[in-house]
Amino acid sequence: MARRFFSSASIQSPRIEISGSEAHHILHVLRLEVGDRVNLFDGTGVEYQARIDAISRQKVDCVIEDQQTVNRELGVEIHLGVALPKGDRSRWLIEKAVELGVHRVVPLECERSVVHMRSASISRLSKAVIEASKQCGRNQLMELGAPVSFFQWLEEAQGDALRLMAHPEEAGCPLHTIDACQTGETVKIAIGPEGGFSEAEVRAAVAHDWQLVTLGPRTLRVETAALAVVASISSWSRTGQ
Ligand code: SAH
């Protein structure tokens, strides 16, 4: 999927002007020229084929030649609530969540959280969402929610078809025993911080009808646990087209 670029402005045929870091990439990294063809998306589910019509130092003016709605989303909406780890590990987690088709990531504030998301970190992660979407061909951007307390998220998740809390205890069901037929339209997944969920959080989740799932006898890092559950759920789900 070469030469795929994101337009933060919604694309209205027949022309679109690309500016900012995407224009910089086109002009000064790839050194594309007038007449070269590019693929564009704006996060609304449509893919555009365009030709570069004019360039200046910071802007690229494109003419739209063709467009199609292309759906590369999963058949199920995965909402991943996760106590994000530090720095680059969060970025990595977000990148892989985009590739695997997660619909929404919600940074969780848990009782044992040590990382507290600042708006600068959220905006850095939003850039990672765009970069990963360019690479993997998603035409809809994965949503990145504002940080929310775990207890509040539990309240908001009432009524969703499948709610899974990853918790490394024997009481949890192995993931493969969760019935794929239960998935319905939305699956919520909760992953705790390095210190784990507190007893109060686990009790509250169980009281809200969340299922505890175990991923085996090893303690996984936050991002490994998150992606193990997401990969398993996404493998049950048919991708749209
Ligand atoms: N010492 C902590 C480990 C936390 S690991 C504890 O005992 O809870 C960070 C998070 O990853 C956990 O809160 C859980 O959501 C998930 N996780 C890690 N290993 C897991 C496993 N083997 N089974 C289920 N969840 C796991």
Give a description of the structure.
The protein has 241 residues and is an alpha/beta fold. The chain has 2 domains: 4-69, Hypothetical PUA domain-like, domain 1 (Ribosomal Protein L25, Chain P, Beta Barrel), CATH 2.40.240; 77-236, SPOUT methyltransferase, trefoil knot domain (Alpha/beta knot), CATH 3.40.1280. It has 6 helices and 13 strands. It has helices at 20-29, 87-100, 119-136, 150-156, 199-207, 222-236; strands at residues 4-6, 15-18, 37-41, 46-55, 60-69, 77-82, 104-109, 143-144, 148-149, 162-166, 173-174, 186-191, 211-214. Strands 6, 7, 8, 9, 10, 11, 12 and 13 form an 8-stranded parallel sheet that branches. A 5-stranded mixed sheet has the order 1-3-4-5-2. The longest helix has 18 residues, at 119-136. The radius of gyration is 20 Å and the shape is elongated. The model has no long low-confidence stretch (mean pLDDT 92).
CATH superfamily of the largest domain, by name, is SPOUT methyltransferase, trefoil knot domain
Order of helices and strands: EEHEEEEHEHEEHEEEHEH
Any low-confidence stretches, pLDDT <50, length ≥5? none
Question: Over all CA atoms, what is the radius of gyration?
Answer: 20 Å
Under the CATH scheme, which architecture of the largest domain would be assigned? 3-Layer(aba) Sandwich
Average pLDDT value?
Answer: 92
Please state roughly what percent of the residues sit in beta strands, choosing from under 5%, 5-15%, 15-25%, 25-35%, 35-45% or over 45%.
25-35%
- Secondary structural class: alpha/beta
Helical fraction equals 25-40%
Using the coordinates above, name the CATH class of the largest domain: Alpha Beta
CATH topology of the largest domain: Alpha/beta knot
- Termini, distance in Å? 17 Å
Compute the number of helices.
6
Largest sheet, strands/sense/barrel: 8 strands, parallel
Query: What is the domain total for the residues?
Result: 2
| Strand tally | 13
Instruction: Enumerate the distinct ligands.
Output: S-adenosyl-L-homocysteine
Question: What characteristic shape results from the CA principal axes?
Answer: elongated
